[in-house]
């Protein structure tokens, strides 16, 4: 029997044709090429290069025996720690009951779209999983235009234009800053203007602040300060505590959205039950903070800032148009200046560009088409994470503790990133 006519294989049409997550795909391809003996510089998957802080690892070891199912919404002690963390950092007044814990913020985002019946508004460019999740669930996605000269950031005016035609339509707006894929962030004035539009149309605003703690100057501010009644803050352990594989995310809700939090908890109870017990116990140490966590974050920010500035300068010198990152570990260069030379080699899409770069140099990056752009937009996302994070923190807090970090530090701590820029430059020059 032909497999395609056998109805046992009638895959959900919302899932058919969707590729696996682009970031995970590039990671697996990079690992496969490495296992075949090729030297691959991995700038595809945005995984924090830094180790999990020692005290948080010790807490996990100490709680490895915890085996009970925890409450669906999460361990009370952890929910208290997260409420305290948000109140300290954002001068807010949330309580432990406003907090929902999940196995990664990705899972919580999926449940939010399942629980709330509304359209999804996403600024373009945007992280690779927002839109596919909406498609799997069967929600409409509206991409909001942004522009390079405005650092690819959403403006209040563009948001208002989208909403005014059907003002009472239920919508979720996702705002992610510092941004994946650009590394750019918003000013207070920009956040206030967006908050005013969100309030006007009663939007649910999901503020994805997973990179908030890796704002290079440590000055991240949540839009929840300006639109508290409609904003859900999303964060977790993956990007600022180096614990991506631990899979712990959290949403912090305003009391006004308690019915939505409860609806998500019902979905959680019928799907994953609860987040891993040892991980939740260990996460309390991370969210409670302390001098050691502050030092870890301070050095992480110093390292990421100097690396981001170095990569930005190298890419600009090559002829790419790229915005200077202000947080996270990403750059979003545009190689349109090479369009004619690339076309002679039959490279006309960002996908083909990244494929050719990988084959010719061993440098793995992701095409702009994975972030919401049309195929022929010759941009790409570069995650500057292929370096020894533990060694870089040791150097920054040791030999370089009282010195300005510069190119000499980058060459010593991040030789693979320097090599990636050299290889990319040589390849572009050879076109």
From TrEMBL:
Record EC number: 2.6.1.-
Q: Which SUPFAM superfamilies match?
A: PLP-dependent transferases (SSF53383)
Which cofactors?
Answer: pyridoxal 5'-phosphate
Q: Name one Pfam family in it.
A: Aminotran_1_2
Q: What InterPro entries would the database entry show?
A: Aminotransferase_I/II_large, AspAT/PAT-like, NHTrfase_class1_PyrdxlP-BS, PyrdxlP-dep_Trfase, PyrdxlP-dep_Trfase_major, PyrdxlP-dep_Trfase_small
**GO terms (BP aspect):** amino acid metabolic process
* All copies of domain Aminotransferase class I/classII large, residue ranges: 38-376
**GO MF annotations in UniProt:** pyridoxal phosphate binding; transaminase activity
Q: Which domain of life is it from?
A: Bacteria
Gene3D superfamilies membership: Aspartate Aminotransferase, domain 1, Type I PLP-dependent aspartate aminotransferase-like (Major domain)
| Alphabetically ordered keywords of this record | Aminotransferase, Pyridoxal phosphate, Transferase
The record, for CDD domains, names:
AAT_like
Q: Which family does it belong to?
A: Belongs to the class-I pyridoxal-phosphate-dependent aminotransferase family.
Q: Which PANTHER family match?
A: ASPARTATE AMINOTRANSFERASE
Q: Per its record, how is this protein called by name?
A: Aminotransferase
Q: Which organism is it from?
A: Marinobacter gudaonensis
